Amino acid sequence: MAKRIYLCLAHMSETGMEQKYIQEAFDTNWVVPLGPNVNGFEQDLESFVGQDKRVVALSSGTSAVHLALIACGVVPGDEVIVQSFTFCASSHPITYLGATPVFVDSEEETWNMDPDLLEVAIKDRIAKTGKKPKAIVPVALYGMPYQIDRIMEIADRYEIPVIEDAAEGFGSKFKGQVLGTFGKYGVLSFNGNKMITTSGGGALITPDQDSWREIMMYATQYRESYPYYQHEKIGYNYRMSNICAGIGRGQMTVVNDHIAHHKHVQKLYEELLADTKGITVHSQPKGQCSMVNGQCSMVNGQCSMVFDSNYWLCTITLDPELKIKGQENAYKTVVTGAVGGAAGVIHVADSATTDCQPNENVEALRVYMDKAGIEARPVWKPMHKQPVYKQAPAYVNGVSEAIFKVGMCLPAGPYVTDEDVKYIVDTIKDAIVG
Ligand SMILES: *Cc1c(COP(=O)(O)O)cnc(C)c1O
């Protein structure tokens, strides 16, 4: 197999719509961080997410998290509750604001924020600090919907706003409703590896016209309406460029195909790995039809399931007893590249190991797949185990740390063919000793 199979690659539409919109931007000289493509992309996103939401297109998902926190009134000294099992972009902006992230662990079914632990954390923070956390940030890890009905019930009871981090969950649904539309704000990402891409970019789903205007002000340096620059608040240069938005408009013509393909790849993995002892494919909670007034709620003539993941990445877990070829050599050499690459700039690690890392069979499987031309990755390391967040309060039950030790992400997305999935599964089976 000559081609290398990546975790999730950007994939342009067959019809070249992205280039058409970009060409239009050049032809009309809209090569700036506003313009017809930005407006058009925002409209496309608004019709996609529904619920009468207003959307602001931004330069990244990270900036969307940042602005949502500002809009929730987060200031230095505040606390914000955030799912620990996530990519750092969910929590870093809390730190940018001089606030403290309070990490909450996951439940086993969805791998996302444990609602019971969320309530424990809220009560304990109020007892310890005398004030409520300013926001709650659940994360749709690998696209999987969180238990949003329970999370919203708790958040509403304590009157704390929810910022949904649906960066990985674009198009995932809970009871037929798109993620990012339940909480006060919803974060989307269009980085190169996400469900759709604008090369780099993000968006914030806002609840109403006033919030939308305020986010728009913050995203464009908070310029007051005068003939000269007048600033009454600190703003940011976070608006999406009209070129990137052109890519986004093109991608919106294929978003449903992308989602369907990710789901198809997941199903194939589930089928092909069903009988492989020691490997479990992580799937959404099954068989629950979402009922409204005692009736199955239909969406587009189909029974809508409670959990409807976009399956952005397929994830598996390895039984600790499973033996993988080359396992005895796992972690023997220092790795010389950061995961995902950081513009080729790296720190050479001091050691080949840390005090919290995936099991040796997981690392051995990663290396085995890498040699076979397949990019596989450990699942994200929980934030409460990251050295940079050593001091942050954390409410843990061991779930995310346990999954981190046994979990692995497999390639998905439009570039991954049925043949590729078969090859990946065969490679996994080959790697198993015995
Ligand atoms: C990708 C991602 C983001 C946003 O990232 P950007 O790269 O800034 O667009 C936020 N949260 C999670 C969980 C993500 O995976």
Q: Describe it for me?
A:
Helix 1 (about 15-25) packs antiparallel against helix 8. The chain has two domains: about 15-250, 3-Layer(aba) Sandwich (Aspartate Aminotransferase, domain 2); about 255-430, Aspartate Aminotransferase, domain 1. The strands form six sheets. The chain has a four-stranded mixed sheet, sandwiched between helices. It has helices at about 15-25, 35-50, 60-70, 90-95, 115-130, 150-160, 210-220, 240-250, 255-270, 360-370, 400-405, 420-430; strands at about 55-60, 80-85, 100-105, 135, 165, 175, 175-180, 185-190, 200-205, 280, 290, 295, 300, 300-305, 305-310, 315-320, 375-380, 395, 405-410. By secondary structure, it is α+β, with helices and mostly antiparallel strands. Helices cover about 30% and strands about 15% of the residues. It is globular. The model has no long low-confidence stretch (mean pLDDT about 95). Pyridoxal-5'-phosphate binds near residues 60, 61, 86 and 87.
Write a concise synopsis of the structure shown.
The protein is α+β, with helices and mostly antiparallel strands and 434 residues long.
| Main sheet characteristics | 4 strands, mixed
Tell the overall outline: globular
Q: Please count the beta strands (DSSP E, at least 2 residues each).
A: 19
CATH H-level homologous superfamily name of the largest domain? Type I PLP-dependent aspartate aminotransferase-like (Major domain)
Helix fraction bin:
25-40%
Instruction: Identify the strand order in the major beta sheet.
Output: 1-9-8-5
Q: Report the end-to-end length measured between terminal Cα atoms.
A: 24 Å
